[in-house]
Amino acid sequence: MIKALQIGFFGGLTTMASPFLVIYDQFQQDQYGQMILIWTVHIFGGLLACYLGRYVVRKWWED
After folding, report:
1. Helix axes 32-62, 2-28, angle to 10 degrees
2. Alpha-carbon torsion 14, 50, 62, 60, what sign?
3. What value, to the nearest 5°, has the Cα angle with vertex 17 and ends 12 and 18?
4. Predicted TM-score of the model (pTM)
5. Which of 24, 39, 56, 57 has an alpha carbon within 20 to 30 A of 50's alpha carbon?
6. Can you give the pLDDT at residue 9?
7. Is residue 2 scored above 70 in pLDDT?
8. Which of these, 18, 24, 25, 27, lies nearest to 45 by C-alpha position?
């Protein structure tokens, strides 16, 4: 379980770099609408992935 959490944590850090670079690029180009859209999709996608992972782990532990 700990190993899975470590892999998920480090994988999450490397996956976050790309959207943050795109958001930073949009910020420099003064395209705030696109920047907010990408930020919103990234945040809600991350939350959805966390809840889905939690659901799957709970179902796995129950069986």
Report:
1. 170
2. negative
3. 110
4. 0.52
5. 24
6. 58
7. no
8. 18
Query: For residue range 19-50, what is the model confidence (pLDDT) as tens digits?
Result: 777 788 888 898 888 888 888 887 888 788 88
Residue spans per domain, the chain: 2-62
CA distance 28 to 63: 50
* Token pair 């996608």: residue: 45
Joined together, the tokens standing for residue 17 give 């770099």
- CA dihedral over 39, 44, 48, 51, signed as positive or negative: positive
Distance CA 27, CA 40 (A): 14
- The distance between the two most distant Cα atoms of the chain, rounded to a whole number of Å, is 51
